[in-house]
Amino acid sequence: MNAVLPVGKLPHHLLADLLAQAPSQHExxxxxxxxxxxxxxxxxxxxxxxxKTEPITFATQDIGWYAVQIASNDIATTGxxxxxxxxxxxxxxxxxxxxxxxxxxxxIFQTCQRLGITLVGGHxxxxxxxxxxxxxxxxxxxxxKARVITPRGARPGDVxxxxxxxxIEGCAILAREFAPRLERIxxxxxxxxxxxxIYEPGISVLRDAQVAIAxxxxxxxxxxxxxxxxxxxxxxxxxxxxxxxxxxxxxxIPPLAQKICAFFGLDPLGMLASGALLLTAPxxxxxxxxxxxxxxxxxxAAIGRVExxxxxxxxxxxGQEQPMPRFARDEIARFYEQQAIT
Length: 342
Prior knowledge:
Largest sheet: 7 strands, mixed
Number of helices: 11
Helix content: 25-40%
Distance between the termini: 27 Å
Radius of gyration: 20 Å
Shape: globular
Structural class: alpha+beta
CATH superfamily of the largest domain: PurM-like C-terminal domain
Oligomer: single chain
CATH architecture of the largest domain: Alpha-Beta Complex
Strand content: 15-25%
Order of helices and strands: HEEEHEHEEEHHHHEHEHEHEEEH
CATH topology of the largest domain: Phosphoribosyl-aminoimidazole Synthetase, Chain A, domain 2
CATH class of the largest domain: Alpha Beta
Strand order of the largest sheet: 8-10-7-11-9-12-13
């Protein structure tokens, strides 16, 4: 009962029990806190406000850029474009210089300008006993209420689609933070390509979401972040109250990502996967969505189906069905903890 919890997300059962006690009921709350529900949605009459808070705790390089992009991804999964942002910047004691502050600020401001986001407030401080910068963003978007998409919308018969592949973000972080170790298995060019994963294919899914929505009916979207694709699939199943059946061979994993994961002994299904967009669509719309994404230069694949039944996720491996693994914490978090021990 009093065991110390590991680094990473709270266990789903603990989070669900905690949120069940939260004072989150209000007539204007269209979507409140819940497992697999990344954004809050408030009823503003004809429109809805979509709100998201997101911390960046693993990445250090380009952390300001990361902070804006990752929060924007969750806003995008509701069909909304991010408009306003607040930032909390926590900086490490004994390591913070004016240059560090200026660099992170410039990253945040330039990324906001590129995405059309206005900074409206926040908080900054140098924090006791902190070893690396942490950036927490709160993003707000506005959309016509009738056009809001939530993870609860997936329906039996829908096709499950994944864009780009996995685990884009996780491999980029490893290549940036542990490049010298990867020199044992990768060429300098391969390391540079992996480090550049955050830009190409990229960790933003704003465009992925917009292209998909314009091409056909999208019933649900989810952004695989901490805990990877496996956790995102479980969260989607639980949010929508459906069963998902996913073909392992259909999940796109770049060969370079496979090499990095194998070298560090990490499962790509459970690793930070920002850049991939998970979405569901009726079977009559899925081909148009896939074609539109491909035509826009965004790789995409149909990886499974939505079925009726209790919330479960099954993985088809060489024709055999097995439960999708559940990751108590992200593979990156597990790896970082191992490094601290050794």
